[in-house]
Amino acid sequence: MYRVLLFDNPNRKNPKIVHEPYSYGEKIKDSEVYLSLNGLGISTFEFTFNINNKYYQKIEPIIHFIQILDVTRNKEIFYGRVAKITNKMEASGSFSQTLLAEDEKAFLYDSVQTYMKPTRMTVSAYLQKILDAHNKQVEAHKQFRLGEVNVVDNGDLLRGLGYQSTADTIKEKLLDRLGGTLTLRRVGNINYLDYLSNYGVNSETPLQLTKNLKSATRDIDISELFTRIVPVGQDIEDTSNTDIEVGTDFSRPKYTIEKVNGGKNYLDDEALIKKFGLNTGIVEFSNVKDPSILKRRGLQWLKDQSLMLVTWTVEAIELGLLDKRYELITLGNSYKVDNQFIYAVERLQVIEKKFSILEPQKVTLTIGSKKKKLTDYQNEIKAIQSNLVNVKKFATAGVQNISELIKRQEEFDNDLSVQSSKVSSLEDLTSELSTTVTESAEAFKQLASDLTNTVESVGTAQTEMKKALDDLIKRVEKLEK
């Protein structure tokens, strides 16, 4: 059960209830909570209420904040600012207002970075530099402190900054290049940003066909595959003394690998070319000048490149709301996805979760975005083929089981017919016995009645004889006198 609170200040003071989960209080009409780890991992909450809600037309973007509380577990599941408001009139004449709130990581769009010459520094120092620039430009409630950082760059540690928003800088310079997960952690009144190579834990709550899996889709994307790459390095400085003005679409020459690669500016992955043919792409190493280093980095990129992206999208039942033996499905945790008609069991991380606070037992999950290499791809094909064989065996066994069940049903029907005949005979015998018992009961009843009459007659006779005897005694006594 979820309560939605409204704040007209960034300090989380004086909350007002926009939606009360119990029978009393204000209510919202529709809602969708979207929790995400994709990219910057900005989560959102969209909800709608009608004109009867007392906060209709009283909420403003940016200056109002929304919080969702799980009242059962006393836990916050969302907090952020109102970013968008939509007012609507239906053809029926009803009015509604829809609000979209975004979590606090969206504050990273409220500042910009300025140019910094490429400098050698660690990932942690680089992110600290970015946050320092951000914090100088925004109010206190939009500031972040650097938390835990365990993402490591395995290449050259030359890092620079350009003229971009802080959010775009973090995404392009860190997340897109190094991977990892950017998470928000609140301690007291302070927001910390953690940059983690691994996030979440392995959960034993199942996502399993016949148990809580309503529907499932498994996507395989190989659109980012390159079998041949052209490594390019830093821009070559223009040493000519020219005053010619160029436009923004002007391109500068870059360092390449021809000098150390037999005159070729490209590198091939022969195994991938044999499998998929030629597919050429540019791979840029913007801080590299030395052709030897550039070639080495290019070969390493080919070795490390991911062949395909695997993603599951599933609709599931939130077992944790129905059975205390299970925990709630948590963003970032990894779960075993078990639907062997689609693929063998595999454990993947939940990277998106959607649900309505009005129907929290129904959730839609994006699970995976797991990148795989050529060997993984080959194993994937073998596993799928093997799984299809197993499914066919299962289907064949199912047909055999059905045939056996039909045969058993026929045998059962025959036995039932025999037993029915026996029951019919038994019913006739029972009927005859019932008639005999009834007749005997009537005879016993008549006998009992006759016996009662006889006993009564004997009693009367005894009384009369006693009276006569008493009279006779009295007469004898008189004669003696």
Name the descriptors.
Phage tail proteins - horseshoe like beta roll fold, 3-stranded mixed sheet, alpha+beta, Phage_tail_spike_N, 13-stranded mixed sheet, Tail_dom, Phage tail protein
Quick recap of the structure?
With 481 residues, the chain is α+β, with helices and mostly antiparallel strands.
Plain-language structure description:
By secondary structure, the protein is an alpha+beta fold. Among the domains are: 2-108, Phage tail proteins - horseshoe like beta roll fold (Roll), CATH 2.30.300.10; 111-196; 207-221 and 307-372; 228-236 and 252-304, no CATH class. It has helices at residues 123-135, 166-178, 270-276, 291-304, 374-480; strands spanning 2-7, 16-19, 30-36, 44-50, 65-70, 75-89, 95-103, 116-120, 145-149, 158-161, 181-187, 190-196, 207-208, 213-221, 228-232, 267-268, 280-284, 308-317, 334-339, 343-356, 359-372. The strands form 4 sheets. Strands 1, 2, 3, 4, 5, 6, 7, 13, 14, 18, 19, 20 and 21 form a 13-stranded mixed beta sheet that branches. Strands 9-12-11 form a 3-stranded mixed beta sheet, with helices on one face. Helix 1 packs antiparallel against helix 2 (166-178). The radius of gyration is 43 Å and the shape is elongated. The protein starts with a strand and ends with a helix. This is Phage tail protein. Residues 122-380 form the Tail spike domain.
